[in-house]
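User: Here's a chain of 135 residues. Predict its fold as tokens.
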Amino acid sequence: MLLSSTPRGARLARLLAVDTLRSWGLPHERASHVVAELAANAATHGRLPGRSFRLTLYVIGTRLRIEVTDTRGDRLPEPQVTDAGAESGRGLLLVEALADRWGVTEERFPRKTVWAELGLSSPEPESPCSGVGGG
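Assistant: Prediction complete.
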């Protein structure tokens, strides 16, 4: 999915990821937080005017791989050590805590892909009510 490098594009990335994972019958709680952080970083730190970022989700065996590609290959992400009062700077620490592993792949300049892998548990049980039309 190509998304605008804006806060709205980052929010849309999370919503689309949750929708996709639900349609695949896969758990989405941890993944939605990881997507939110990686997409927010792409929209904030990987932004170039007029350029979008790409969200890719796929399953490899029992792992979900989340990839966010932006056009700021000159800015590689690093977890930050922030003071207790800081309002930002903890996104990659959250990704590190939620993902089984994560990293950065430098691609053909000027792109980079920040990726995270999460182990998949068994599918979420179907709810008896679809949520459409009450119930």
